[in-house]
Amino acid sequence: MRCRACLLLCLLVAWPALATAQTKNPADVMPAKAIAYIELRNPGQLIKEVQSLVEGSVLGKPDVLKKLQEKYAASALRRGPEAIQAASLILAPEIPAEIGRIQGAAVAITGIDKDERGMPEFVAVILPGDSNILRLAFRAFPLAFASGYASSDGKMRVEGTSRFEAVAEIQGVTIYRMKTRERRTTGGDAPMETVREQGPALATLPDALVVGSVERVKEVIGLAKGARTPALSGTRAYQEANKGMGDRPGIFSLGDLSALLDMIEQLPLGPGEKEMLASVKKLVNPAALKSVNQSVSLSAGTLRFRWQAQLDPGEKSRVLDLLPASGINPDMLHFLPRDAAVLLAISNADGEQRFANLLTLANEIHQAAGGRGRTPSEELQGLEQMIGQNIGKDILAKIQSIAIAMKAPGGIGDLTAPPVTAVVQATNEAAAKSLVEQTIPHFYGLVTKSQDLKAETQEKDGQTIYGMPFVNYGRQGATIVIATKPELVADALNGGVKKAGLLSDEKIGARLSKTEGTVVFLAAKPLAIAAKSLPMGMMFMPAQEKALVGKIIGPIQELAKNEEPIVLHVTRTRESLTAEFTVAGLKDIVPKAVDVGVEMFYQMSGPSERRFAPPASKTLRKPEQKK
After folding, report:
1. Distance CA 522, CA 508 (A)
2. Is 104 domain-assigned?
3. Angle at 172 between CA 166 and CA 178, to 5 degrees
4. How far is CA 561 from CA 492, 518, 557, in A?
5. Which of 72, 175, 209, 410 is most buried (CB neighbours < 10 A)?
6. Are the C-beta atoms of 355 and 391 separated by less than 8 Å?
7. How far apart are CA 165 and CA 266, in angstroms?
């Protein structure tokens, strides 16, 4: 009998895995009207990518790790597991072997549940692949929630049970849901019985496990069985968003902002919350955003975060009107120093109009907040009268792009005069000349309270440099360079003419080659900054911190030689707004960072354990016996 039971259990567990997989992507069986959607893609490959980052570190070298443990011997009476050994389990081959069996998982929100008041209507789909453990856990899940209760006050007895039971069958697939049966008995009266369903529904398909609101579970079953109703994977919003993710492992999400705000309106909101929501809808105009998607992926040692909004060109939005319609001018990047460690470039296309849009938005927010005091327009008029300039017409209208770059500090002198270079790309040469000869001296005089201030000129390496205390600048055509030192200005101008500036650097230049439509570009080399600034900071550190920093400076300086820049890229087109954040070269950085972190952990935990260790026992002498 026991053998038969065991055989039956094995068949129940293994049977789904024998079926031919049909659903390769959770979105293929998700409702097309999903308001919000999040998907875990290729989890097994994702775990392998994480392991590849640390496998070259001390965590993957047991012999080296053992020597470190012996070097920093810990108290034998320590409580809990050895933290570093526990962390090394991330490299266990069993983890990707089991998780790699799972194809993926996803959750979608489709609205407000009509049965569960105030709760979202949702559905979750798990593609277990060849993972029998996941299938067994899904079947065991309902058993953990079976319960019963009974009570009596002498007049009435109440008995009840709650367990998952079959509530429907769709195309041969049984749907289970929590049922609570309650019986009330009073005196000699006939018992009154009630039955109610609550909570999410469960269903098991040959290649998918489904949890969610009853109607949405039914819809998923229909799509999995070949129903002709639209699926999420067939929508244009999903297909456009999927292009950015590609086949890289990670997390992917998609949302309909307009439908999401409409869903929030259906929730029980207070008067103040309703007014705030109405103001947000008015300012943002959700109809201008067709959909929003995000993704986080890890592939080949590169971490990527991508956010994108699909735009409707026929709709206007106060917030979107603040963004430039065109990208930065790539020619200006030739004037940035080649060894810059930090770069920020921003487009200012249509600056005058966008400033007017900002002022209109500020006035509307002021009005929505109660309209007390002077309006932003009135405050601006007072400021412009004081400075004698129209900010939109006289300044912003003449600037097409702005970029700021900073070199890593090379000495104490760089702390008082930071090696920062600013580049202003004017709309034309006449605008650049006006900014250099009139606007910059005028504003410098306002700040320093010096009237009729004029800059001194000098020739430096073939360039005419305008100088004022702590500020130096020069011009080449429509490009203006501003820096703290005249030699920085001259180097930047000559580098721009010879095209020997930042774009000639292989690491950053490759990332800057695609600048069309780029409204914001940020690149940074934090290791390069740390490699030069930490030695200067050591002279101000206490002895213990100085010793620790002294050990990590060498590895940091070595890593900085081949450092890939961290990049933020914001692109605007007529149909979309995209932001991409990329951290490359992690396979070179992470193992060495882990090695340094592990050794520092042992160094710092050793004194702490000795501090709290129990006192050493003292050996008591036996009293001498009198003869």
Report:
1. 11
2. yes
3. 15
4. 23, 28, 7
5. 209
6. yes
7. 31
| Residue 480 to residue 489: CA distance in whole angstroms | 9
Whether the CB-CB separation of 329 and 401 falls below 8 Å is answered with yes
Indicate whether 323 and 270 sit together in one domain: no
SS3 227: coil
Domain boundary, last residue among 554, 573, 592:
573
Contact (Cβ atoms closer than 8 angstroms) between residue 314 and residue 290: no
- Angle, helix 586-612 to helix 43-54, in steps of 10 degrees: 70
* CA 191 to each of CA 163, 186, 214: distance values in angstroms, whole numbers, following the listed order: 21, 7, 30
Q: Is residue 585 part of a domain?
A: no
Q: pLDDT for 379-409, tens place per residue?
A: 999 999 988 889 999 999 999 999 999 988 7
Q: What tens digit of pLDDT does each residue of 208-267 get? A: 999 999 999 999 999 999 888 899 999 988 998 888 888 899 999 998 877 777 777 777
Q: What pTM was estimated for this model as a whole? A: 0.82
Measured in whole angstroms, the distance separating CA 306 from the mean position of its chain's CA atoms is 8
pLDDT tens-digit readout, 563-603: 888 999 999 988 889 999 999 989 988 888 888 888 777 77
Last residue of a domain, one of 544, 573, 602: 573
Q: Which residues, 6 or more positions from 167, have their beta carbon under 8 angstroms from its beta carbon? A: 175, 176, 177, 179, 197, 201, 214
Query: Alpha-carbon distance 255 to 38, whole Å?
Result: 9
Question: Environment class of residue 280 by beta-carbon count within 10 Å: exposed (0-12), middle (13-18) or buried (19+)?
Answer: middle
Q: Which domain holds residue 326?
A: 315-426+476-573
SS3 502: helix
- 470: its two tokens: 């702590």
Extract the tokens encoding 361.
């938005």
Q: What is d(CA 574, CA 283) in angstroms, rounded to the nearest whole number?
A: 19
